[in-house]
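dumping this here so i dont lose it
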């Protein structure tokens, strides 16, 4: 059981604080011979596995490194296109590391503002007057818990589905935010928390 991430979203939907508190599952590195028995496709400026799961490599995993050199999106460390490099038989055998891609700061901002919009839609669609919006989203691999203050600040925690005591954790995070951010004379409301 674990807490994966903590997000604080201001009342306008902007991300003002984010903390990742988990080690992603281990990446999988494997040496391949030509032809590659996985189907790779470009997706969101990354090269991901589109077909062919095996040995811990799953559909959706991104190419993270080739021959020990980190991959930057769709390009190798020396600027070559990953798909062109892997399509050339002269480059084999090749060692490729696969894993879940890491979210960039912009992607985290976008996801926080998207949740803010879903929260507003959820509270407006509720058949009950004065609905508090989305308090929890549950999937098979995580739960997203949300606590909105009276001022509109949202505190979100992504946790293991079996984790208990998240409501108390959210209230404690709000208490810490009140004590250390709001009482700080140099902190401006709605601004990122450093």
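and the seq i came up w/
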């Amino acid at each position: 059981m674990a807490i994966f991430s903590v997000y604080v979203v201001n009342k306008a939907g902007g991300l003002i604080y984010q903390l990742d508190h988990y080690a992603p599952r281990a990446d999988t590195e494997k040496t391949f011979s030509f032809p590659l028995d996985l189907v790779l496709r470009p997706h969101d400026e990354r090269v991901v596995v589109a077909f062919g799961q095996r040995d811990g490599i799953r559909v959706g995993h991104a190419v993270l490194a080739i021959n020990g050199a980190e991959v930057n999106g769709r390009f190798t460390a020396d600027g070559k296109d990953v798909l062109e490099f892997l399509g050339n038989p002269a480059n084999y055998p090749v060692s490729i590391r696969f894993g879940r891609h890491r979210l960039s700061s912009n992607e985290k901002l976008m996801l926080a503002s998207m949740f803010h919009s879903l929260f507003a839609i959820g509270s407006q669609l509720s058949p009950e007057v004065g609905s508090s919006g989305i308090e929890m989203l549950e999937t098979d691999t995580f739960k997203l818990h949300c606590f909105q203050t009276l001022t509109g600040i949202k505190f979100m925690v992504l946790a293991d589905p079996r984790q208990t005591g998240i409501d108390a954790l959210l209230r404690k995070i709000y208490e810490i935010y009140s004590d250390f951010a709001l009482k700080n004379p140099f902190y401006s409301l709605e601004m990122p928390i450093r």
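The first strand starts at residue 3 and ends at 9.
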